[in-house]
Amino acid sequence: MPPLSLGGLDPHRAFPAGLLARAHRFGTGERALWLGRTAAVLATLGLLARRLPPAARRLGLGRVGSAVVLGMVAVSAVWAVRLPFSVADLVWRHRYGLGPVDVGSWLAAEWAALSSSAVAALAAIALLVALAVRFPRGWWIPGGAVAAALLALLAFLSGWLLALGTRPLPSAALRRDVARIEAAEHVHAPVREQEVSSWTDLPNAFTAGFGPSTHVVLWDTLLDGRFDRAEEDVVIAHELGHVRSGHVLEGVAWGALLAFPLALLVAAATRRRGGLREPANLPRAFLLLAVAGLALAPLENAVSRRYEAEADWRALEATHDPAAAGRLFRAFVPAALEEPDPPLWDYLFLESHPTIAQRLALVEAFARRTRAARRGGRPATGGRASPGGP
């Protein structure tokens, strides 16, 4: 697979100026909401780091019990402070014609996500504080292992949890396409449809889980007639490309790798105040992890973009249809108002996928490779996608 450059194609070659201006205005609002939400979360965690420690000492629930209560307060506070920005984002998307403002359906989805993440967070807090009580100085070593194990468990279970409420693909022809693409990619995974059109018009698909829990989920907004079957096949092949490449497991491995230095960072930052065994230090740990997460976002997004680019290449190899892939990526601009070439800071901190300009450049590279292979009488594709170039 050829390496991606930041520039990709010149968006003005592929899109009218009016559409680019509209996508830029929409993206500017999205970025403003992200900045506001991020600042509000950090400010909230900073306030909790100042106000909660004295309350923690008065709870009298034991170290683990007090830690769980503080964790509940922190999770609830962060969710509450994010909520107005999320509602504003919903309204902003509606203003640009990207979905109805069905706050009830949207809140139900948000509540389900909060419930699962809260359970995982509270379990992690209880285990890590218990380890810190047992191993006051070196807790971060087993703590990192526990965090990595919980991440792997959550990633495994998410394959089933995120597929709850989905349904089989509605088209027999599309199901036959899935079987054909699975054979081309040498993988098998359930591919199902999820109804989201009550609160968004954005097209999307995702892969969740690994091993027996693996599922590919297509939003019904992807199958509503705006995209032809060849374009839908590219999306399916892209998601099955994630399965073939084992990207979910690779993501778990990255998380496990980062768990140990992050645990060591928390241990070092709280050691003078008694370490993580003192529940009063938890709010400071939450703030520290939030800042560290923000600092690591460019690295996380760079890895994710590499995975997404590899899945794009696998989709091209499986479908042999660069024209459909090009139409699909171009359609994302009017359908989702994706900015084809966003500002650099947006690219670093917010973009988990290659830009539309980069994806179109990848399609052109594949098409050139295919034409060259045909002229030379060689197979156009084959083998594992790699960063070495065609």
Describe this protein's structure.
This protein has 390 residues and is mainly α. The protein has one domain (11-376). The protein is built from twelve helices and four strands. Strands 1-2-4-3 form a four-stranded mixed sheet. Helix 2 (17-58) packs antiparallel against helix 3, helix 9 (282-319) packs parallel to helix 12 and helix 10 runs antiparallel to helix 12. The N and C termini lie close together (6 Å).
What can be said about this structure in brief?
69% of the residues lie in helices and 4% in strands. It has one domain (11-376).
Compressed to H and E, one letter per element, the order equals HHHHHEHEEEHHHHHH
How many angstroms does the end-to-end distance come to? 6 Å
Please give the number of β-strands: 4
Mean pLDDT: 89
Report low-confidence residues grouped into runs of 5 or more: 382-390
Radius of gyration: 23 Å
User: What is the share of helical residues?
Assistant: 55-70%
General form: globular
Total domain units: 1
The strands making up the biggest β-sheet line up spatially as 1-2-4-3
